[in-house]
Amino acid sequence: MNEAQKLIQQITEGIQDKKGKNIVIADLTKIEDTICNYFVICQGNSPSQVTAIVESVKDFARKGANVKPFAIDGLRNAEWVAMDYADVLVHVFLPEARNFYNLETLWADAKLTQIPDLD
After folding, report:
1. What distance in Å separates the CA atoms of residue 42 and residue 34, rounded to the nearest whole number?
2. Strand order from edge to edge, sheet including 71-73
3. Which keywords accompany this UniProt record (predicted)?
4. What does the DSSP assignment read for 47-101?
5. Is the pTM of this model over 0.85?
6. Mean pLDDT by 10 residues, the chain (119 residues)
C-alpha cells in the first residue's frame, strides 16, 4: 500500500468515525493536468457534523499516516469544507451543496469507488 492509499484509508476511517455518508473516492491518476491524484468526497447532515468530520479526518490522518493538511478552507459556514493533503483533496459537504456542485460528474473520466455507509 503506497502513502496516498494509506492516507485515503485513514481519511475514510475518520469520516466513518463521525458517521459521514456517501463516501466516494475519485482516482484521478490516469487524467492529465489535475490538481491532485485523488478526491475523497463525503457529506454530513449539518454544519456541526461537517466540522466534526473535518476534525476527525485531521486526527486520523495525523495519527495513522503522520500527515497534516496543507490547508483547510470553508469551515466558517461548513457547507463545503476542502482539506488539502497535496496528493489527496478531501471534500466534506452538506447534502444540498454536494448536489449543487456534483464533483463526481465533473471528473467523469475518473475511476470512482463508492465506500458503503457503516450503518
Report:
1. 20
2. 71-73, 80-85, 88-93, 38-43, 21-27, 111-115
3. Cytoplasm, Repressor, Translation regulation
4. HHHHHHHHHHHHHHHHHHH----SEEE-TTT-SEEEEEETTEEEEEE-HHHHHHH
5. yes
6. 92 98 95 92 98 98 96 97 97 97 87 91
